[in-house]
Amino acid sequence: MGRKWNNIKEKKASKDANTSRIYAKFGVEIYVAAKQGEPDPESNRQLKVVLERAKTYNVPKAIIDRAIEKAKGAGDENYVELRYEGFGPNGSMVIVDALTNNVNRTASDVRSAFTKNGGSLGVSGSVAYMFDSTAVIGLVGKTADEVLELLMEADVEVRDIIEEDEAIIVYAEPDQFHAVQEAFKQAGVTEFTVAELTMLAQNDISLPEDAQVQFDKLIDALEDLEDVQQVYHNVDSEE
């Protein structure tokens, strides 16, 4: 599938500045999820998903607690969820998910990132139809056969099970995210290397070196934006 999930996560958090940026973005995401429902992950599924993701990035408990307490206190910041679709070099496709309290600022920043790095924004639906919403869960300490067996025993259906380096990566329908995790937890697995609800391209592409350099700059520029939470694309990220 062209994606080394553990490598991608490590790359995102490889620099101190990036780590701080990731923590800040999780703070916003947790606040929004907690404010939209109960500030309890056991009764707020969206919040539970965000907290599971945060754990895989080692987001400090203080940041998580602060965001939840802010939501409990009826913080007056209102955020809007936005999705942008666009094109990068050589026909590459990009989806950008954002949380913002200033729509005009975010739209301008995202458009600028595209145009300055060889890309262009598309209309809604111009790219997303080539992607599938997917749950991705990774763990270590078990073989692919063991994972398949325990999922079958738990009567949980998944799309695929892949061995990646020393980890096992499970791909499933989004509505199976919690069922997969619960099956693992019942088997004694409490730590996950990856726990994402993501958008996977139906077909990955490879870019020539010059286009890859430009594409990487585009992705970096988008991920550096304060309001951008996730960036998905169809370029083979295997390193």
UniProtKB/TrEMBL annotation:
GO terms for biological process: regulation of DNA-templated transcription. GO terms for cellular component: cytosol. Residues 79-235 form the TACO1/YebC-like second and third domain. Transmembrane segments: none annotated. InterPro entries: Integrase-like_N, TACO1_YebC-like_2nd/3rd_dom, TACO1_YebC_N, Transcrip_reg_TACO1-like, Transcrip_reg_TACO1-like_dom3, Transcrip_reg_TACO1_YeeN, YebC-like. GO terms for molecular function: DNA binding. The keyword Transcription regulation applies. Its main location: cytoplasm. Keywords: Cytoplasm, DNA-binding, Transcription, Transcription regulation. Residues 3-73 form the TACO1/YebC-like N-terminal domain. It is found in: Cytoplasm. It holds the Pfam family Transcrip_reg. The keyword Endoplasmic reticulum does not apply. HAMAP family: Transcrip_reg_TACO1, Transcrip_reg_TACO1_YeeN. Belongs to the TACO1 family. YeeN subfamily. This is Probable transcriptional regulatory protein B4V02_13525. It comes from Paenibacillus kribbensis.
